[in-house]
Design goal:
Layout lengths: L83
Protein name: Glutamic acid-rich protein
């Protein structure tokens, strides 16, 4: 992924499954508490209409920031592929 990340973290210094900012577990793009996201979301949803574990876009599974499947991040990837 595009930067220093820890497990499954994308685009920034994040902790497990954290994306794009200083976040705690499953937190995205800002200071959040566990599973908290910048807005009204459903379980594990972040910053938009997303389903389980989706972040910042219409994604499924552990997808982040785009139409991605599996553990894909930030592009159209499959599997554990990253940019």
């Amino acid at each position: 992924m595009q930067g220093d990340f820890n497990s499954y973290g994308m685009q920034g210094d994040s902790n497990s499954f954290g994306m794009q900012g200083g976040s705690n577990s499953y937190g995205m793009q800002g200071d959040f508490n566990d599973y908290g996201m910048q807005g009204d979301f459903n379980s594990y949803g972040m910053q938009g209409d997303s389903n389980d574990y989706d972040m910042q876009g219409d994604s499924n599974g552990y997808d982040m920031q785009g139409d991605i499947n599996g553990y894909d991040m930030q592009e159209d990837f499959n599997g554990y592929d990253m940019q």
